[in-house]
Amino acid sequence: MREAKLQRIFAHEFDSHFVFSILISSFVMNLTNTSGSMHILKGVQVLVVDNDNDSGEIYDTLLNHFDAIVTLYSSVKNALEILDWLTPNIIVCEIRFLGESVYRLFEKLHAIEVGSGNHIPIIVTSTRHLAAESKFPM
């Protein structure tokens, strides 16, 4: 059932310029086959902060597929509030938030590390429209 949901999500077109590749689905299935276990993230608390519902659903489904404990928020403000009582093992965060600064989250993580010595790694993600490539070459 999880595999069918993953394939449905990865095959879904989110924007006319941005489609998740079946390669990701293949990666997930290969990782599952080579590890022999679906529990490689069992007990890992992941905080996902993403203002795009489709992206959030992908992270949630993928991480739950490997038994991570996922907490999903769509705003930096809400993520900052939960960090007062939740200490995730890792954070996955979109860099672009309309009207919010993700740097407030970085500052909070730094304060947590300074205050308690607890380092929480963060993976920063971003999506980019293909049309932007012609305007802003890499």
CATH architecture name of the domain at 41-135? 3-Layer(aba) Sandwich
DSSP helix fraction? 40-55%
Q: What is the fold named in CATH at topology level of the domain at 41-135?
A: Rossmann fold
CATH class annotation of the domain at 41-135: Alpha Beta
- Span between termini: 39 Å
Q: Could you explain how this protein is built, in words?
A:
This protein has helices at 2-11, 22-35, 53-65, 76-82, 103-116, 130-135; strands at residues 13-15, 18-19, 45-49, 69-73, 90-94, 122-125. It is of the alpha/beta class and 138 residues long. It has a domain at 41-135: Response regulator (Rossmann fold, 3-Layer(aba) Sandwich). The strands form two sheets. A four-stranded parallel β-sheet has the order 4-3-5-6. Strand 1 and strand 2 (18-19) form a beta hairpin. Residues 10-27 have low confidence and may be disordered.
Supply database-style keywords:
single chain; 138 residues; 4-stranded parallel β-sheet; 17% strand; globular; alpha/beta; 6 helices
